[in-house]
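Recall the central idea of this unit: under ordinary conditions, the amino acid sequence of a chain determines the structure it adopts. In this exercise we apply that idea directly, starting from the sequence alone.
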Amino acid sequence: MKRENRTIHVSLVVVGGGPAGLAAAIRCREQGIEDLLILERGPRLGGILRQCVHSGFGVHKFNEELTGPEYADRYIDRVRELGIPYRCDTMVTDISADHVVTCVSEEHGLTRIKAGAVILAMGCRERSRGAVRIPGTRPAGVYTAGTAQLFVNLKGYMPGKRVVVLGSGDIGLIMARRMRLEGAEVKAVLELMPYSGGLKRNIVQCLEDFDIPLLLSHTVTEIHGENRLTGVTIARVDENLRPIEETKEFIDCDTLLLSVGLIPENELARAAGVELDPVTGGAVVDEHRETSVGGIFSCGNVLHVHDLVDYVSEEAEIAGESAALYLKGELPRRQTVAARAGNGVRYVVPQRISGGGEELRLFFRPDQVCRGAMISVSSGGELLRVRNRRIVTPGEMESIVLKEEELRRVHGDITIEVGLKS
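Accordingly, the structure predicted from this sequence is:
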Protein backbone atom coordinates (compact mmCIF):
# COMPACT_ATOMS: atom_id res chain seq x y z
CA MET A 1 0.00 0.00 0.00
CA LYS A 2 1.13 3.57 -0.63
CA ARG A 3 -0.04 6.93 0.67
CA GLU A 4 -0.66 9.88 -1.65
CA ASN A 5 -2.21 13.11 -0.39
CA ARG A 6 -3.42 11.34 2.78
CA THR A 7 -5.29 8.78 0.70
CA ILE A 8 -4.40 5.08 0.70
CA HIS A 9 -4.43 3.30 -2.65
CA VAL A 10 -5.13 -0.45 -2.79
CA SER A 11 -6.33 -2.84 -5.45
CA LEU A 12 -9.21 -4.26 -3.40
CA VAL A 13 -11.08 -3.33 -0.22
CA VAL A 14 -13.23 -5.99 1.45
CA VAL A 15 -15.79 -4.41 3.78
CA GLY A 16 -16.51 -6.91 6.53
CA GLY A 17 -14.33 -9.49 8.26
CA GLY A 18 -16.95 -12.17 8.81
CA PRO A 19 -17.20 -15.45 6.92
CA ALA A 20 -18.11 -13.79 3.61
CA GLY A 21 -15.37 -11.16 3.73
CA LEU A 22 -12.70 -13.65 4.78
CA ALA A 23 -13.57 -16.18 2.06
CA ALA A 24 -13.73 -13.46 -0.61
CA ALA A 25 -10.36 -11.98 0.38
CA ILE A 26 -8.70 -15.40 0.45
CA ARG A 27 -9.97 -16.35 -3.01
CA CYS A 28 -8.91 -12.99 -4.44
CA ARG A 29 -5.40 -13.36 -3.03
CA GLU A 30 -5.21 -16.93 -4.36
CA GLN A 31 -6.03 -15.50 -7.79
CA GLY A 32 -2.93 -13.32 -7.64
CA ILE A 33 -4.17 -10.01 -6.20
CA GLU A 34 -1.56 -9.01 -3.62
CA ASP A 35 -2.67 -5.51 -2.67
CA LEU A 36 -5.90 -5.87 -0.69
CA LEU A 37 -7.28 -4.85 2.69
CA ILE A 38 -10.06 -6.18 4.94
CA LEU A 39 -11.96 -3.64 7.07
CA GLU A 40 -13.88 -5.02 10.07
CA ARG A 41 -15.87 -2.88 12.51
CA GLY A 42 -15.67 -5.46 15.33
CA PRO A 43 -12.69 -5.99 17.65
CA ARG A 44 -11.56 -9.15 15.80
CA LEU A 45 -12.16 -11.13 12.65
CA GLY A 46 -14.88 -13.78 12.43
CA GLY A 47 -18.07 -11.73 12.56
CA ILE A 48 -21.17 -13.32 14.07
CA LEU A 49 -19.50 -16.76 14.11
CA ARG A 50 -17.57 -15.81 17.24
CA GLN A 51 -20.74 -16.07 19.34
CA CYS A 52 -22.18 -19.17 17.60
CA VAL A 53 -20.73 -21.83 19.89
CA HIS A 54 -23.12 -24.57 18.73
CA SER A 55 -22.06 -27.16 16.18
CA GLY A 56 -23.44 -27.69 12.68
CA PHE A 57 -21.10 -25.51 10.64
CA GLY A 58 -18.86 -26.81 7.88
CA VAL A 59 -20.73 -29.99 6.97
CA HIS A 60 -20.84 -29.04 3.29
CA LYS A 61 -17.60 -27.07 3.11
CA PHE A 62 -15.28 -29.23 5.22
CA ASN A 63 -17.23 -32.49 5.51
CA GLU A 64 -17.20 -32.23 9.31
CA GLU A 65 -19.22 -30.54 12.02
CA LEU A 66 -17.60 -27.46 13.51
CA THR A 67 -18.68 -24.77 15.95
CA GLY A 68 -18.94 -21.20 14.68
CA PRO A 69 -15.56 -20.14 16.16
CA GLU A 70 -13.89 -23.27 14.73
CA TYR A 71 -15.31 -22.52 11.29
CA ALA A 72 -14.15 -18.90 11.47
CA ASP A 73 -10.68 -19.96 12.61
CA ARG A 74 -10.20 -22.02 9.44
CA TYR A 75 -10.48 -18.80 7.43
CA ILE A 76 -8.70 -16.52 9.91
CA ASP A 77 -5.71 -18.86 9.93
CA ARG A 78 -5.66 -18.82 6.12
CA VAL A 79 -5.84 -15.01 6.03
CA ARG A 80 -2.81 -14.83 8.32
CA GLU A 81 -0.98 -17.55 6.39
CA LEU A 82 -1.42 -15.56 3.18
CA GLY A 83 -0.41 -12.33 4.89
CA ILE A 84 -3.64 -10.52 3.98
CA PRO A 85 -3.73 -7.20 5.86
CA TYR A 86 -6.78 -6.28 7.90
CA ARG A 87 -7.95 -3.56 10.24
CA CYS A 88 -10.38 -4.30 13.07
CA ASP A 89 -12.31 -1.72 15.12
CA THR A 90 -12.68 0.16 11.84
CA MET A 91 -16.04 1.61 10.81
CA VAL A 92 -16.67 2.29 7.13
CA THR A 93 -18.80 5.42 6.86
CA ASP A 94 -19.08 5.86 3.10
CA ILE A 95 -18.39 4.21 -0.24
CA SER A 96 -18.58 6.17 -3.49
CA ALA A 97 -19.38 4.88 -6.96
CA ASP A 98 -15.74 5.45 -7.97
CA HIS A 99 -14.54 3.10 -5.20
CA VAL A 100 -13.44 5.62 -2.59
CA VAL A 101 -13.96 4.03 0.83
CA THR A 102 -14.06 6.33 3.86
CA CYS A 103 -13.47 4.74 7.25
CA VAL A 104 -12.62 5.75 10.79
CA SER A 105 -10.80 4.03 13.65
CA GLU A 106 -9.15 5.01 16.91
CA GLU A 107 -5.75 3.83 15.66
CA HIS A 108 -5.77 5.39 12.18
CA GLY A 109 -8.33 8.18 12.50
CA LEU A 110 -10.26 9.21 9.39
CA THR A 111 -8.91 7.43 6.31
CA ARG A 112 -9.88 7.50 2.65
CA ILE A 113 -8.99 4.50 0.54
CA LYS A 114 -9.04 4.59 -3.27
CA ALA A 115 -9.64 1.03 -4.39
CA GLY A 116 -9.62 -0.64 -7.76
CA ALA A 117 -12.56 -2.79 -6.65
CA VAL A 118 -14.73 -3.22 -3.55
CA ILE A 119 -16.38 -6.32 -2.11
CA LEU A 120 -19.37 -5.70 0.17
CA ALA A 121 -19.61 -8.32 2.93
CA MET A 122 -21.21 -6.41 5.83
CA GLY A 123 -23.71 -9.10 6.83
CA CYS A 124 -27.11 -8.27 8.28
CA ARG A 125 -28.77 -7.00 11.45
CA GLU A 126 -31.78 -8.22 13.40
CA ARG A 127 -35.20 -6.64 13.33
CA SER A 128 -35.98 -5.05 16.68
CA ARG A 129 -39.18 -4.63 18.69
CA GLY A 130 -39.73 -1.27 17.01
CA ALA A 131 -39.70 -2.92 13.58
CA VAL A 132 -42.55 -5.27 14.50
CA ARG A 133 -44.44 -2.69 16.61
CA ILE A 134 -45.43 -4.77 19.61
CA PRO A 135 -47.57 -2.58 21.90
CA GLY A 136 -47.12 -2.31 25.65
CA THR A 137 -44.66 -0.92 28.15
CA ARG A 138 -40.88 -0.71 27.70
CA PRO A 139 -39.41 -2.87 30.48
CA ALA A 140 -36.02 -4.54 30.67
CA GLY A 141 -35.99 -8.15 29.47
CA VAL A 142 -36.81 -7.71 25.76
CA TYR A 143 -33.86 -8.67 23.55
CA THR A 144 -33.19 -9.73 20.01
CA ALA A 145 -32.10 -13.37 19.92
CA GLY A 146 -28.65 -12.39 18.67
CA THR A 147 -28.11 -9.99 21.56
CA ALA A 148 -29.09 -12.72 24.01
CA GLN A 149 -26.68 -15.08 22.26
CA LEU A 150 -23.89 -12.52 22.71
CA PHE A 151 -24.67 -12.14 26.41
CA VAL A 152 -24.78 -15.88 27.10
CA ASN A 153 -21.96 -17.15 24.88
CA LEU A 154 -19.42 -14.32 25.02
CA LYS A 155 -20.25 -12.26 28.12
CA GLY A 156 -21.40 -15.03 30.47
CA TYR A 157 -24.66 -13.29 31.40
CA MET A 158 -28.10 -14.93 31.53
CA PRO A 159 -30.82 -12.60 30.16
CA GLY A 160 -33.51 -14.21 32.31
CA LYS A 161 -35.09 -17.36 33.76
CA ARG A 162 -38.58 -17.59 32.22
CA VAL A 163 -38.41 -17.13 28.46
CA VAL A 164 -40.75 -16.69 25.50
CA VAL A 165 -39.30 -16.60 21.98
CA LEU A 166 -41.14 -14.72 19.22
CA GLY A 167 -40.16 -15.97 15.77
CA SER A 168 -38.97 -19.40 14.68
CA GLY A 169 -35.99 -18.37 12.58
CA ASP A 170 -32.87 -20.43 13.14
CA ILE A 171 -31.31 -18.10 15.71
CA GLY A 172 -34.57 -18.11 17.69
CA LEU A 173 -34.68 -21.91 17.68
CA ILE A 174 -31.02 -22.17 18.67
CA MET A 175 -31.44 -19.68 21.50
CA ALA A 176 -34.51 -21.50 22.81
CA ARG A 177 -32.30 -24.57 23.22
CA ARG A 178 -29.40 -22.53 24.61
CA MET A 179 -31.55 -20.94 27.28
CA ARG A 180 -32.96 -24.34 28.26
CA LEU A 181 -29.44 -25.79 28.50
CA GLU A 182 -28.46 -22.92 30.81
CA GLY A 183 -31.35 -23.71 33.14
CA ALA A 184 -34.04 -21.30 31.99
CA GLU A 185 -37.66 -22.32 31.52
CA VAL A 186 -38.61 -21.75 27.89
CA LYS A 187 -42.39 -21.37 27.86
CA ALA A 188 -42.91 -21.43 24.08
CA VAL A 189 -41.64 -20.38 20.67
CA LEU A 190 -44.29 -18.38 18.77
CA GLU A 191 -44.42 -18.08 14.99
CA LEU A 192 -46.69 -15.64 13.15
CA MET A 193 -46.82 -17.74 9.99
CA PRO A 194 -48.41 -21.21 9.71
CA TYR A 195 -44.94 -22.69 9.11
CA SER A 196 -41.56 -22.34 10.81
CA GLY A 197 -38.95 -19.97 9.46
CA GLY A 198 -36.06 -22.25 10.47
CA LEU A 199 -34.36 -25.35 9.18
CA LYS A 200 -36.11 -28.65 9.89
CA ARG A 201 -33.06 -29.99 11.70
CA ASN A 202 -33.17 -27.04 14.11
CA ILE A 203 -36.86 -27.58 14.82
CA VAL A 204 -36.09 -31.18 15.75
CA GLN A 205 -32.82 -30.64 17.63
CA CYS A 206 -33.70 -27.39 19.39
CA LEU A 207 -37.42 -27.73 20.15
CA GLU A 208 -38.69 -31.28 19.81
CA ASP A 209 -35.69 -32.84 21.57
CA PHE A 210 -36.24 -30.46 24.53
CA ASP A 211 -40.06 -30.54 24.61
CA ILE A 212 -40.30 -26.83 23.86
CA PRO A 213 -43.73 -25.97 22.37
CA LEU A 214 -43.84 -24.38 18.89
CA LEU A 215 -47.05 -22.39 18.46
CA LEU A 216 -47.61 -21.65 14.77
CA SER A 217 -49.94 -18.83 13.67
CA HIS A 218 -49.36 -17.08 17.01
CA THR A 219 -47.89 -13.73 17.98
CA VAL A 220 -47.30 -11.43 20.95
CA THR A 221 -49.99 -8.77 21.18
CA GLU A 222 -48.83 -6.92 24.30
CA ILE A 223 -45.80 -6.58 26.58
CA HIS A 224 -46.34 -6.16 30.34
CA GLY A 225 -44.13 -4.83 33.13
CA GLU A 226 -42.62 -1.57 34.38
CA ASN A 227 -38.95 -1.95 35.37
CA ARG A 228 -38.76 -5.61 34.32
CA LEU A 229 -40.84 -7.71 31.96
CA THR A 230 -43.55 -9.58 33.88
CA GLY A 231 -45.31 -11.31 31.02
CA VAL A 232 -46.70 -11.15 27.51
CA THR A 233 -50.13 -11.55 26.00
CA ILE A 234 -50.21 -13.90 23.04
CA ALA A 235 -52.92 -14.76 20.54
CA ARG A 236 -53.60 -16.95 17.54
CA VAL A 237 -53.82 -15.04 14.24
CA ASP A 238 -56.27 -15.52 11.38
CA GLU A 239 -55.50 -16.01 7.69
CA ASN A 240 -54.87 -12.25 7.39
CA LEU A 241 -52.37 -12.41 10.29
CA ARG A 242 -54.68 -10.45 12.59
CA PRO A 243 -54.92 -11.52 16.25
CA ILE A 244 -58.10 -13.40 17.18
CA GLU A 245 -59.42 -11.63 20.27
CA GLU A 246 -60.97 -14.66 22.00
CA THR A 247 -57.68 -16.62 21.80
CA LYS A 248 -55.66 -14.11 23.82
CA GLU A 249 -53.68 -15.62 26.70
CA PHE A 250 -51.25 -14.21 29.28
CA ILE A 251 -47.89 -15.96 29.74
CA ASP A 252 -45.80 -15.18 32.81
CA CYS A 253 -42.16 -14.54 31.78
CA ASP A 254 -39.25 -12.25 32.53
CA THR A 255 -37.57 -12.46 29.10
CA LEU A 256 -38.81 -12.08 25.52
CA LEU A 257 -36.40 -12.98 22.71
CA LEU A 258 -37.17 -11.63 19.26
CA SER A 259 -36.22 -13.67 16.19
CA VAL A 260 -38.34 -11.75 13.70
CA GLY A 261 -36.12 -11.44 10.67
CA LEU A 262 -32.80 -10.13 9.40
CA ILE A 263 -32.07 -7.01 7.35
CA PRO A 264 -29.01 -6.84 5.05
CA GLU A 265 -26.78 -3.92 6.07
CA ASN A 266 -26.86 -2.05 2.76
CA GLU A 267 -26.67 1.60 3.76
CA LEU A 268 -23.17 1.74 2.26
CA ALA A 269 -24.31 0.06 -0.94
CA ARG A 270 -27.12 2.60 -1.24
CA ALA A 271 -24.66 5.46 -0.76
CA ALA A 272 -22.57 4.09 -3.63
CA GLY A 273 -25.60 4.08 -5.93
CA VAL A 274 -25.95 0.29 -6.00
CA GLU A 275 -29.35 -0.96 -7.16
CA LEU A 276 -31.10 -2.92 -4.38
CA ASP A 277 -33.65 -5.71 -4.68
CA PRO A 278 -36.86 -4.69 -2.84
CA VAL A 279 -37.51 -8.29 -1.79
CA THR A 280 -34.09 -9.42 -0.52
CA GLY A 281 -32.95 -5.99 0.66
CA GLY A 282 -29.59 -6.83 -0.93
CA ALA A 283 -27.92 -5.72 -4.13
CA VAL A 284 -29.04 -6.75 -7.60
CA VAL A 285 -26.11 -8.79 -8.95
CA ASP A 286 -25.07 -10.92 -11.89
CA GLU A 287 -23.58 -14.40 -11.63
CA HIS A 288 -20.17 -12.86 -10.85
CA ARG A 289 -21.81 -11.12 -7.85
CA GLU A 290 -21.03 -7.76 -9.44
CA THR A 291 -23.58 -5.08 -8.59
CA SER A 292 -25.05 -2.42 -10.87
CA VAL A 293 -21.96 -0.30 -10.09
CA GLY A 294 -18.98 -1.68 -11.98
CA GLY A 295 -16.20 -3.00 -9.74
CA ILE A 296 -18.40 -3.24 -6.63
CA PHE A 297 -19.29 -6.82 -5.67
CA SER A 298 -21.59 -8.20 -2.98
CA CYS A 299 -21.78 -11.56 -1.19
CA GLY A 300 -23.02 -13.31 1.92
CA ASN A 301 -25.88 -12.14 4.12
CA VAL A 302 -25.56 -8.56 2.91
CA LEU A 303 -26.69 -9.89 -0.49
CA HIS A 304 -29.43 -12.22 0.74
CA VAL A 305 -29.96 -14.06 4.02
CA HIS A 306 -28.47 -17.56 3.91
CA ASP A 307 -29.42 -20.58 5.99
CA LEU A 308 -25.92 -22.10 6.07
CA VAL A 309 -22.57 -20.38 6.42
CA ASP A 310 -21.11 -22.98 4.05
CA TYR A 311 -23.11 -21.38 1.23
CA VAL A 312 -21.99 -17.92 2.37
CA SER A 313 -18.38 -19.00 1.90
CA GLU A 314 -19.04 -20.52 -1.52
CA GLU A 315 -20.78 -17.38 -2.73
CA ALA A 316 -18.00 -15.19 -1.34
CA GLU A 317 -15.43 -17.21 -3.27
CA ILE A 318 -17.33 -16.37 -6.46
CA ALA A 319 -17.18 -12.67 -5.56
CA GLY A 320 -13.49 -12.88 -4.68
CA GLU A 321 -12.56 -14.61 -7.92
CA SER A 322 -14.70 -12.21 -9.96
CA ALA A 323 -13.08 -9.18 -8.30
CA ALA A 324 -9.66 -10.58 -9.23
CA LEU A 325 -10.77 -11.00 -12.86
CA TYR A 326 -12.16 -7.45 -12.83
CA LEU A 327 -8.85 -6.04 -11.59
CA LYS A 328 -7.01 -7.95 -14.31
CA GLY A 329 -9.42 -6.71 -16.97
CA GLU A 330 -10.59 -10.28 -17.62
CA LEU A 331 -14.13 -10.31 -16.22
CA PRO A 332 -16.47 -11.53 -19.00
CA ARG A 333 -18.82 -8.88 -20.38
CA ARG A 334 -21.85 -10.27 -22.17
CA GLN A 335 -25.42 -9.19 -22.73
CA THR A 336 -27.32 -10.13 -19.57
CA VAL A 337 -30.88 -11.34 -19.09
CA ALA A 338 -32.99 -11.20 -15.95
CA ALA A 339 -33.58 -14.13 -13.61
CA ARG A 340 -37.11 -13.76 -12.27
CA ALA A 341 -39.22 -15.23 -9.48
CA GLY A 342 -42.31 -16.91 -10.92
CA ASN A 343 -45.25 -18.59 -9.22
CA GLY A 344 -44.39 -20.01 -5.80
CA VAL A 345 -41.00 -18.21 -5.59
CA ARG A 346 -40.20 -15.20 -3.43
CA TYR A 347 -36.85 -14.17 -4.96
CA VAL A 348 -33.97 -15.37 -7.14
CA VAL A 349 -30.22 -14.61 -6.81
CA PRO A 350 -28.40 -13.70 -9.00
CA GLN A 351 -31.00 -11.49 -10.61
CA ARG A 352 -29.04 -11.04 -13.87
CA ILE A 353 -27.08 -13.62 -15.82
CA SER A 354 -25.11 -13.69 -19.05
CA GLY A 355 -25.63 -17.36 -19.86
CA GLY A 356 -21.94 -18.03 -20.43
CA GLY A 357 -19.81 -20.52 -18.54
CA GLU A 358 -19.99 -24.22 -17.85
CA GLU A 359 -22.71 -24.06 -15.23
CA LEU A 360 -24.71 -21.62 -13.14
CA ARG A 361 -26.28 -22.08 -9.71
CA LEU A 362 -29.41 -20.06 -9.06
CA PHE A 363 -30.51 -19.59 -5.45
CA PHE A 364 -34.16 -18.99 -4.64
CA ARG A 365 -36.60 -19.09 -1.75
CA PRO A 366 -40.13 -20.56 -1.99
CA ASP A 367 -42.94 -18.30 -0.81
CA GLN A 368 -44.99 -21.09 0.83
CA VAL A 369 -44.82 -24.69 1.96
CA CYS A 370 -45.32 -27.03 -0.98
CA ARG A 371 -45.42 -30.82 -0.65
CA GLY A 372 -44.77 -32.83 -3.78
CA ALA A 373 -43.15 -29.82 -5.43
CA MET A 374 -41.96 -29.43 -8.99
CA ILE A 375 -39.26 -26.80 -9.58
CA SER A 376 -39.11 -25.59 -13.18
CA VAL A 377 -36.71 -23.23 -14.96
CA SER A 378 -37.71 -21.74 -18.31
CA SER A 379 -36.46 -19.11 -20.76
CA GLY A 380 -38.28 -17.59 -23.68
CA GLY A 381 -41.12 -20.06 -23.29
CA GLU A 382 -38.77 -23.07 -23.40
CA LEU A 383 -38.43 -25.38 -20.40
CA LEU A 384 -34.75 -25.67 -19.46
CA ARG A 385 -34.79 -27.84 -16.37
CA VAL A 386 -37.21 -29.58 -14.00
CA ARG A 387 -36.53 -30.99 -10.54
CA ASN A 388 -38.93 -32.67 -8.12
CA ARG A 389 -38.78 -32.23 -4.36
CA ARG A 390 -40.74 -33.98 -1.62
CA ILE A 391 -41.25 -30.67 0.18
CA VAL A 392 -40.03 -27.07 -0.07
CA THR A 393 -40.53 -24.41 2.60
CA PRO A 394 -39.80 -20.68 2.93
CA GLY A 395 -37.49 -21.48 5.86
CA GLU A 396 -34.97 -23.28 3.62
CA MET A 397 -33.23 -21.68 0.66
CA GLU A 398 -33.22 -23.78 -2.50
CA SER A 399 -30.87 -23.84 -5.48
CA ILE A 400 -30.84 -25.32 -8.94
CA VAL A 401 -27.91 -25.71 -11.33
CA LEU A 402 -28.12 -25.03 -15.05
CA LYS A 403 -25.53 -26.91 -17.10
CA GLU A 404 -23.67 -25.54 -20.12
CA GLU A 405 -26.04 -27.08 -22.67
CA GLU A 406 -29.02 -25.55 -20.84
CA LEU A 407 -27.35 -22.15 -20.67
CA ARG A 408 -26.86 -22.23 -24.44
CA ARG A 409 -30.65 -22.45 -24.77
CA VAL A 410 -31.24 -19.25 -22.81
CA HIS A 411 -33.08 -16.79 -25.07
CA GLY A 412 -34.72 -14.13 -22.98
CA ASP A 413 -35.42 -13.82 -19.27
CA ILE A 414 -35.14 -16.88 -17.04
CA THR A 415 -38.05 -17.72 -14.73
CA ILE A 416 -38.07 -20.12 -11.77
CA GLU A 417 -41.40 -21.49 -10.58
CA VAL A 418 -42.52 -23.90 -7.87
CA GLY A 419 -45.72 -25.86 -8.30
CA LEU A 420 -47.28 -29.24 -7.61
CA LYS A 421 -46.03 -32.27 -9.51
CA SER A 422 -48.48 -33.15 -12.26
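The domain at 128-260 is CATH 3.50.50.60 (FAD/NAD(P)-binding domain).
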